[in-house]
Amino acid sequence: MSVTDELLANAERYAATFDKGGLPLPPAKGVAVVACMDARLNPYGLLGLAEGDAHVIRNAGGVITADERRSLAISQRLLGTREIILIHHTDCGMLTFTDDDFKAEIQAETGVKPDWSAEAFADLDEDVRQSIGRIKGDPFIPHTDQVRGFVYEVEAGRLREVKD
Amino acid sequence: MSVTDELLANAERYAATFDKGGLPLPPAKGVAVVACMDARLNPYGLLGLAEGDAHVIRNAGGVITADERRSLAISQRLLGTREIILIHHTDCGMLTFTDDDFKAEIQAETGVKPDWSAEAFADLDEDVRQSIGRIKGDPFIPHTDQVRGFVYEVEAGRLREVKD
């Protein structure tokens, strides 16, 4: 049995006890969270989010690229969110390599160099500030006065705010 | 008090009861989930995921763009995941508009047309198949033999697999 099959069995249990109350499409709390994909970072447990509360956008690093700007534009323009919470975290995989080395390894193996930036970073707090800057500098995200950035400390389960 | 402040109070409670056992960086279950950012879709509750289990990648629609290919390449190459679970869902915001209309509205308001595709779609199952195709066609994601796609039915809390 694959891990996917194991998780599908969990999904059947979820459906069996699902409250069919019917939640609306727009997030109840009007907030979008952008966080790293890291397995130890569970935005639901950490922020006390329930089904229906918030958009959750995630990728390697929790960085802001064109796709996060797209998702945030849709979140705010079509679904009414107004606040943005950015979460990076300690012991992040993105701190363990450089773009150049990672892409050179892929080129050595496949013969082709990826056409994307790997978005690795060396300084957590500075990368959170970069992400805030990319959001505030985007012309298509209308509401950028409530954007706050945090580092999740995986060792302690604690959020620490990154100040400008 | 902003919603962000309210969620930060939840985060303090999470830290207070956090098990400082220390989880490893690589996901325990070796799986990456790619899902829509929709507020009603909680991958932790649905799939029975706990902290440490899986990478979770999310955006508007749960579509595969360059940033998801980047995240999946990092997930598999650096952190050892081997299975991919894709989740779209019913009543998705991406079914309610077209790229052309959305971008024309932004252009009318800001004077500039976004340089991204909004990735709207009209057929859920077909877009899941498109996402699987984009992953299988990517030269930098090494393990694509265990990629399965699903539609989460928000009305019933149920996952339905999309077959080829």
Automatic annotation (TrEMBL), chains A, B:
It holds the Pfam family Pro_CA. InterPro entries: Carbonic_anhydrase, Carbonic_anhydrase_sf. Gene3D superfamilies: Carbonic anhydrase. Its cofactor is Zn(2+). It catalyses: hydrogencarbonate + H(+) = CO2 + H2O. Its EC number is 4.2.1.1. Keywords: Metal-binding, Zinc. Catalyzes the reversible hydration of carbon dioxide to form bicarbonate. Belongs to the beta-class carbonic anhydrase family. This is carbonic anhydrase. It comes from Actinoallomurus spadix. The lineage of its organism: Bacteria, Bacillati, Actinomycetota, Actinomycetes, Streptosporangiales.
